[in-house]
Amino acid sequence: MRANLLGTLAVLLVLLVMVVGLPVLNQAIPAERPVAVGAAIDIGHGVRLVPPPGAAMDTTRTLPKQGVLFLVLHGLDFRAEVKATSQSLEDSARRLRGRIQGQRGVQLAGDPREVVTASGVPGLRGAFSATGGDGLYAVYQRDNLAVQITVSGASLPDQVTAVETSMAGMVFP
Length: 173
Description:
The protein has 173 residues and is α+β, with helices and mostly antiparallel strands. It folds into 2 domains: 1-30; 35-168, 3-Layer(aba) Sandwich (Protein Transport Mog1p, Chain A), CATH 3.40.1000. The chain contains 3 helices and 10 strands; from the N terminus they run H-E-E-E-E-E-E-H-E-E-E-E-H. A hairpin with a 2-residue loop joins strand 8 and strand 9. The N and C termini lie far apart (68 Å).
């Protein structure tokens, strides 16, 4: 009987650690990992991006195997996703615009304009407004690789130059 009681208490202790201890430990570990200034991050498929100064990688929303990089920057959400595509740049941008427009409380602002990275990769960039603040989106495409970027948050006006510099510095393989 005593052995059963000790075994039961041991099981209860393990369950208590799992139910209480693991969530406490999870909360103690920050989801955001600072990114060294000037350090290039491989988004996927060999596409590299240098985040704006002060950015931190959100490790809970970054999915390296799916080609998704999620950064936070002074209240901004910065999401970049790279994927193989057979679509044109215009079709890729239209698809991203549709995804953005489909979100509640989001309104696209005008038509996208042509942009190009420092290494000559063409793209289309536009803007949107949302309840949480303004946003911008961009699609860059070379050959069969497309990178879709969305950036939004109340501090976008203060960070737009750093964000644009980061996007312009993106390097494709």
